[in-house]
Write a structure and sequence with these properties.
mainly beta; Ubiquitin-like (UB roll); five-stranded mixed β-sheet; two-stranded antiparallel sheet; 7% helix; globular; 2Fe-2S_ferredoxin-like_sf; 2Fe-2S iron-sulfur cluster binding domain-containing protein
Length: 99
């Protein structure tokens, strides 16, 4: 599936199945998670705990923390995570609490 994302799909890479907020996605194995999610059309990774403002990847190098997601109960930076088969990803701070 092609999107209007500035991140290009890696068409020749093997795909693995992940789940993002209950939606099944097929992402390139070994790719940067933040880039792969954006290429798949995911733009909002979390909402800020105080104002609820939407956030997504900004720096793509682990400095800003705007791409936080929750994987297996642990909050991680998507830009510092590699896509592997079976990831269960949810939006961080979805209940308004800091984790």
């Amino acid at each position: 599936m092609k999107t209007a994302s500035p991140f290009l799909e890696l068409d020749n890479e093997p795909r693995v199945n992940v789940v993002f907020d209950g939606n099944a996605l097929s992402l390139p194995e070994g790719a940067n998670l933040a880039a792969a999610l954006m290429a798949a059309g995911v733009n909002v990774f979390r909402h800020t705990p105080v104002s609820g403002a939407p956030r997504g990847p900004f720096c793509m190098m682990g400095a800003c923390f705007d791409c936080l997601v929750e994987i297996d109960g642990t909050t991680k930076q998507a830009c510092m995570t590699v896509v592997t088969d079976g990831l269960e990803i949810t939006r961080a701070h979805r209940d308004g609490a800091l984790t």
